[in-house]
Write a structure and sequence with these properties.
Elements lengths: L5 H11 L4 E5 L3 E7 L5 E3 L2 E5 L4 E7 L3 E11 L5 E12 L2 H6 L4 H18 L3 H10 L6 H13 L4 E14 L10
Antiparallel strand pairs: 1-4, 2-3, 2-5, 6-7, 7-8
Length: 182
């Protein structure tokens, strides 16, 4: 019996794309509306209507988000190995730019967060890093440098980095295991 009226269901599905639909944007979100090849438009909170045939709407969360990066081993200027884990807190400051500048801004920010710290660590010795971490009580040490660099890089993606904090720091040794080939 279900197959007998399947053709009717397909007709209603086709006609449904011509009917305007409501969508709700809550106060912690903004939306980016793409309409018929025009420039994207920022849509503020409230109840809005759109035509699915000609419009695409993407809702974006603009509240603070924290991304924790697990411990990774970095090499310092004096060829010492250190393990660092850190947290980056950010929010989307420009939803249109965040959505239209890259395919997935959340993944891009994650990749950016992982790439920012490596050059900072590589340009300092182990002792300089320890001194920088000790200075962070006055907000002029490693965390401040890390935050400033991340802010500069994330700005072009419509994201504002609030702060970055190193929460795990350890000096490590890396061993290379040789295997016999035979």
């Amino acid at each position: 019996m279900g197959g007998a009226f399947e053709w009717l269901n397909k007709i209603f599905e086709y006609l449904w794309i011509f009917v305007p639909r409501p969508y709700l944007i809550i106060s912690t979100h903004r939306a980016v509306r793409y309409r018929r090849g025009r420039k994207p438009v920022l849509v503020m909170p409230g109840v809005r209507w759109y035509w699915p045939l000609t419009t695409m709407v993407k809702v974006i969360n603009i509240t603070l988000r924290a991304e924790e990066f697990k411990s990774r081993v970095y090499t310092t200027k004096d060829a010492k190995s250190v393990a660092l884990a850190y947290t980056m807190v950010y929010r989307v400051s420009n939803p249109v730019k965040a959505d239209s500048s890259c395919d997935n801004y959340e993944q891009t920010i994650g990749e950016l967060g992982e790439s920012v710290l490596s050059p900072i660590v590589a340009s300092n010795t182990l002792q300089e890093l320890l001194d920088e971490l000790a200075k962070d009580l006055e907000e002029c040490g490693l965390n401040a440098t890390f935050t400033a660099t991340a802010r500069k890089m994330a700005r072009r993606f419509g994201v504002r980095v609030m702060y970055c904090r190193v929460h795990t720091f350890a000096s490590t040794r890396v061993f290379k295991l040789l295997q016999e080939q035979g």
